[in-house]
Amino acid sequence: MAVMLFRLSIFLAAITALLEIGVAANSRRQQCTTTLSDAKLVADQLQLHYYNSSTGQYNLGELWTDANTLEDLHNLMLANDSDDYENAADTSYIAKAALDPNTDWTKFLGGSNDDAQWIILALWKIADYKSARGQDSSAYISSAAKIYDMIAREWDDTCGGGVWWSTEHTYKNAITNELFLLTSAAGYLRTKNEAYLENANKEWSWLIASGMRGPNGLFNDGLDLKTCQNNGQTTWTYNQAVVASGLAALYAATGNTSLLDQAEVSLDATIVSLTGNGILRESCDLADETCNHDQQIFKGIWTKHVQYYLDNANDISRVAKYSQFLGVQHSGILLHATNSAHDIGSVWYTADQGRSQWSPEASASGLQAFISAAKYGSC
Ligand SMILES: *[C@@H]1O[C@H](CO)[C@@H](O)[C@H](O)[C@H]1NC(C)=O
Ligand SMILES: *[C@@H]1O[C@H](CO)[C@@H](O)[C@H](O)[C@H]1NC(C)=O
Ligand SMILES: *[C@@H]1O[C@H](CO)[C@@H](O)[C@H](O)[C@H]1NC(C)=O
Q1: How distant is the alpha carbon of residue 97 from its chain centre?
Q2: Is the CB of 33 under 6 A from ligand 1?
Q3: Who contacts 156 (Cβ-Cβ below 8 Å, separation ≥6)?
Q4: pTM of the model as a whole
Q5: Within this chain, do residues 121 and 74 fall inside the same structural domain, yes or no?
Q6: Are 45 and 138 within one domain?
Q7: Which numbered atom of ligand 1 lies nearest the CA of 40?
Q8: pLDDT tens-digit profile of 45-96?
Q9: What start and end residues bound the annotated signal peptide (predicted)?
Q10: Same domain, 289 and 379
Q11: Total domain count for the chain?
């Protein structure tokens, strides 16, 4: 009898443990439904207001910001198992190029090695969506691989390594190299091709030694080519999270948790230094400046890559660390930057005093902040 009770209690303990694991895993993936609904309102308005289905571009958009916006729409559909924007990919000029095996990518990309990698990320996300719906994603995957190979050839020994910002070879900067870390590490996770993993390791060794991350933990824009030193230019928000997303992918490939601690140096520095009222603030959001179209999407990219960071870090305690901050971005944007039509302006941290820019980039930026908050933010 005692033995049976003992066995029963072990059995119950095991069941309880299993249930707890189930609850924890679910609560981590549980999407915040009200935040997702806000995201849907913004995405609907973004498509209505800015998307031109005859050109497949966003009016006032740019190649690389359009790529990010397409990625966001697919990120949203994957979040909610919905197909609301399924035609966006097939009508977009980026996807049309990816589906055409004869696309001249050199011409299409115009020499921008950073733009090229945003397109890789968008194509992978569209491919994930297509595969999740049982559709053929092979053209997206093979176009992404072609673009990746072009970028990998842009690495040389100037300043000890790194890929060039453009094919004109006039600048080496943080974003292009952070993206190369990410596309290499995430590409390895997708393909198990060792060449990608070698590139990721090579890139991180170079990047951390390059001096582009200052003593405050923030990456500056790039290198002064004459001295190969940090050029001290602006510490944009997006630079602080794309590196984290790359490092988490490299962690997922190698199991080296120090990479996650390195990632959080820049994430935490963003929260300390690039915020106002606890909300992300780009230097050009300040009263005497105006963010240009590129800069209007940076903050949303920060939130997107924190989402990807947490996806690959796969650690509840790290989610807990950033959850409240992601939630506050959502509520701050609703309070300060969203109009009654569900367009989103570029200034999030304070009530719009006529300085917010209204554009497809600003709306896409807010959209992604909502999607990230729905997945990992406090509801
Ligand atoms: C999520 O899916 C549910 C069920 O299909 C739907 O009712 C809801 O509108 C969707 N929400 C979003 C944000 O797409
Ligand atoms: C879409 O783009 C075409 C070509 O530039 C233009 O003629 C048309 O007016 C645009 N449509 C919308 C709704 O903006
Ligand atoms: C793990 O990553 C850290 C941080 O970049 C690095 O210093 C260390 O050498 C790595 N460890 C191994 C075994 O590669």
Answers
A1: 22
A2: no
A3: 164
A4: 0.92
A5: yes
A6: no
A7: 13
A8: 999 999 999 999 999 999 999 999 999 999 999 998 999 999 998 899 999 9
A9: 1-24
A10: yes
A11: 2
Residues near 305 by Cβ (< 8 Å), separated by ≥ 6?
182, 238, 241, 242, 244, 245
User: Which residue's CA is minimally distant from atom 10 of ligand 2?
Assistant: 52
**pLDDT higher than threshold 80 for residue 24:** no
How far, in Å, is the centroid of ligand 2 from the Cα of 84? 22
The residue range of the domain holding 281 is: 11-52+277-379
Sign of CA dihedral 46, 325, 121, 213: positive
Lookup: tokens for 103: 């696309």
- Residue 2 parent element (H or E): helix 2-29
| Tens-place pLDDT, residues 100-133 | 999 999 999 999 999 999 999 999 999 999 999 9
**In the chain, helix, strand, coil percent, each to 5?**
65, 5, 30
pLDDT tens digits, residue range 312-335? 999 999 999 999 999 999 999 999
Q: What is the pLDDT of residue 4?
A: 40
**Is 69 part of any domain?**
yes
Quote the pLDDT of residue 29: 52
Please list the residues that pair with 166 across neighbouring strands. 112
Q: Give the closest ligand to the alpha carbon of residue 58.
A: 2
Pick the atom of ligand 3 nearest to 262's CA: 4
- Residues flanking ligand 2, CB < 6 Å: 52, 54-55, 59
The token pair at 193 is 């091709």
Nearest in space to 96 (alpha carbons), one of 60, 130, 136, 55:
55
Q: Mutate which of 204, 210, 256 to test ligand 3's pocket (most atoms within 8 Å of Cβ)?
A: 256
User: Are 107 and 74 within one domain?
Assistant: yes
Centroid of ligand 3 to alpha carbon of 254 (angstroms): 10
Cα 55 to ligand 2 centre (Å): 7
Choosing from 153, 182, 203, the residue where a domain stops is: 153
30: CB partners within 8 A, 6+ apart: none
| Same domain as 24, residue 107 | no
| Closest ligand 3 atom, residue 261 Cα | 4
